[in-house]
Amino acid sequence: MSVRRFLQVLSAILLALALTVPAGTAHAAGETKAAPGDTNNLPPLRIATIERPPLAMRSGATWVGFSIELWKQIANELGRKTEFVPTATFQEMLKLVEQGRVDAAVANITITADRERVLDFSQPIFDTGLKVMVRAEGSPIGLFGAIFNWEMLGLLVLAGCILFAIANLMWFFERKSQPYFDYPYGEGIWRSFWWALNVMLNGGFEERVPQTRRGRIFAVSLLVLSLFTVSAFVAKITASLTVGHLTARVQSYRDLYSRSVGTTSGSTSAAFLRERAIAFRAYETVEQLIKALETKKVDAVVHDAPILSYYAMRKGLGKVSVVGGLLRHEKYGIALPTGSPLAEQVNRSLLRIRESGAYDRLLKDWFGDAYR
Question: Alpha-carbon distance 120 to 115, whole Å?
């Protein structure tokens, strides 16, 4: 083969390579770009949660709530479906995340240094804190309730029986000696009862003084008895009103030392109380905690502000009241396994949701203007 022929063949080969390589490269680049957006074949994200109205709760077969709806928007941003994994306790939910058995967890999960050691967290999704809830005993019906209850009714009946017995004795002893009592039994016993009641309330019998020795002995006995009886009634009513008043006057954690306090086990509220040496009873669920308050097993409960406020304004309306300011400020986040590849994607989605105004709209839908 001549040199000229060789150069022609070589030129043809190089030209062919020059024409085919860019096309192949472009085709490969097109495939690479499409791959990341193709999430249709990926399994749904497993998200652990627990009932914590209004942040996470069941509505029929579906889950709703502020945290749940926010996660749904994040999942939509990521182009992923979600499978919610319900848990019975808060500790169980966090354990699933720590062990990597779920992709994330959403509810009322406070971001803390201790949890950060074993979990990763998203950017904060909600600004909140701890508050106190008490029974609604400091309401305007407190005076009515303090006086008109079964215990007070029993005391009134007992006092009436004692007065009636004394009235009978005074009529029997004095009807022939004191003109005031000298009437037939029907009218005489009524006058005697009125006299005994007047002595008990006014503490004296300057008028219509008994004339017989036995009548005077009973009159003096009634006078002494009246001192204890009236004092007991006043003390009972005052104590009832004071308890309701004091219960409502919880303004800071210092007001909790003299009360029996409840919270949920393993929560940030339990850690808060423990740090300040406030004795408390721990309950596994929020439902058990609220029941303990309503059945008077505890005087006050400490827990997350939005959860207590939501209950007080709905199921607990008229029965409980959220009092005082925030005991401590906290922030909720989405919990993820340590080193989760989702963390960065979730945070970017959160930023886009906030910047679009969707976060503010969601906040208003669930909490009105309270958290704006």
Answer: 8
